[in-house]
Amino acid sequence: MVSKCLLVGYFYFFSYGIFTVLSQVGFDDGFDEIQNEDFKIEMLNLKHREEIKTKISVMESTAKDLYRIQSLHTRIAEKKKKKEAARRAGGQIFAPAPSPESHTGRFSGQLMATLKSGVSIGSGEYLMDVFVGTPPKHFSLILDTGSDLNWIQCDPCYDCFEQKGPYYDPKKSNSFRNVSCNDPRCQLVSSPDPPRRCKAENHYSCPYYYWYGDSSNTTGDFALETFTVNLTMENGKSEFRKVENVMFGCGHWNRGLFHGAAGVLGLGRGPLSFASQLQSLYGQSFSYCLLDRNSNSSVSSKLIFGENKGLMRRQGLNFTTLVAGKENPVDTFYYVQIKSVLVGGEELDIPLETWDLSSNGGGGMIIDSGTTLSYFADPAYKIIKEAFVEKVKGYQVVKDFPILDPCYNVSSVDKLDLPSFGFVFSDGAIWNFPVENYFIKLETDNVVCLAILGTPRSGLSIIGNYQQQNFHILYDTKRSRLGFALTKCADM
């Protein structure tokens, strides 16, 4: 359930005038210190954090989503520009990174990590527990399939946002190493503007800059570090393994609506992501199950790297093809090809070209764990909205909520009776969603609203994490496919 909050800042309207977004949002501080900084055997079964009852508001989530969508558009343009420049110059376009240097063979098993909803600490994202450095220290990072760079707030932190627990201190880790500015790996990150000159003596560290939208960004030193992971063997036993020389950003200047997390774990398709760096260790697939976003801090699910035989045997597991090759201009994002949208079992009359990737990198649909709600490019959004307005009967319409539309009063309703919603993909796969994944209930008002918004016609369409709740989702890059199965994630 999501509660309304007071708006802080001013509003501005998107191109079609449907929703308004905050330029600034106020957050509550006051998180407890992490009590146990030392590495313990129950690494991925950490003490439950004290539940914070304040829930993320729709307006805060939408504000952050809009900033993020702006950055996704910028990243598409930048990636396309870099690829064109490299092609003209005959230079190298980097392939996915190899496994960290200390390993030459694959682990026989799965890498597993604890995954929790960030709502209890005021975040619209999902958080993964990781251990970094030697000796290992615990950090909660945002799970983000829409970006590549892994980064953590680092001491000295010159301009940083509030996080739960202390910043990562590279001076207290025996395994931290800076990447020099002359190292070829430095070319994998974007430099601050203006770029810092690299001198011949090779002593300067590699600076990086990564932009997420509006004021959300991270700047610091590109570096290598040891990540400690929980390895589940084929016989079911668990042990801990150190993965050395993982590339990450040590952020000294960090701004944005990251709200309590220590940084970001990138799981995109590009060479810098955690998934790409470790794929030769566990194989070219990973999966996660996003539990109900309003679950309290005592409930968790799993992020799993490696083949998941249980998931592969699960009845109801469906696959659709990931768009790749020339049709995918950006190696970061996981694109899927929509054919049509179903509302109330009826296929909507949405022009097919709405779902296509354009030659300039616009359009298309991605699945993104870092965006909260789902967003559809026009005219798809307007047609979907109109279909729900036409098909929803028997509920009083609520007009005073400033962002989401349509909204309905359900205060006297025991069981919601709302139209079904689903996608048909170009390869014939169908993804149907439970009603709680596309209608959001506003707790204090007994109101439900369609949890879908629009982007400009030239923009991306995005399946956000709200719509992914309680699905076990598999990213299989080797076979270029996305799997999805309805699952009670809290029971994993």
From TrEMBL:
Claim: Protease is one of the keywords in the record: yes
Q: Identify the domain of life.
A: Eukaryota
- Output one GO MF annotation: aspartic-type endopeptidase activity
Q: Which GO terms describe its biological process?
A: proteolysis
Pfam families in the record: TAXi_C, TAXi_N
Under PROSITE patterns, the record lists:
ASP_PROTEASE (PS00141), PEPTIDASE_A1 (PS51767)
Residue stretches making up the Peptidase A1 domain: 126-485
InterPro entries reported in the protein's UniProt record: Aspartic_peptidase_A1 (IPR001461), Aspartic_peptidase_AS (IPR001969), Pepsin-like_plant (IPR034161), PEPTIDASE_A1 (IPR033121), Peptidase_aspartic_dom_sf (IPR021109), Plant_Aspart_Prot_A1 (IPR051708), TAXi_C (IPR032799), TAXi_N (IPR032861)
Q: Does the keyword Glycoprotein apply?
A: yes
User: Where is the catalytic site?
Assistant: D144, D368
Print the keywords alphabetically: Aspartyl protease, Glycoprotein, Hydrolase, Protease
The family assignment reads:
Belongs to the peptidase A1 family.
- This chain belongs to the protein called Peptidase A1 domain-containing protein
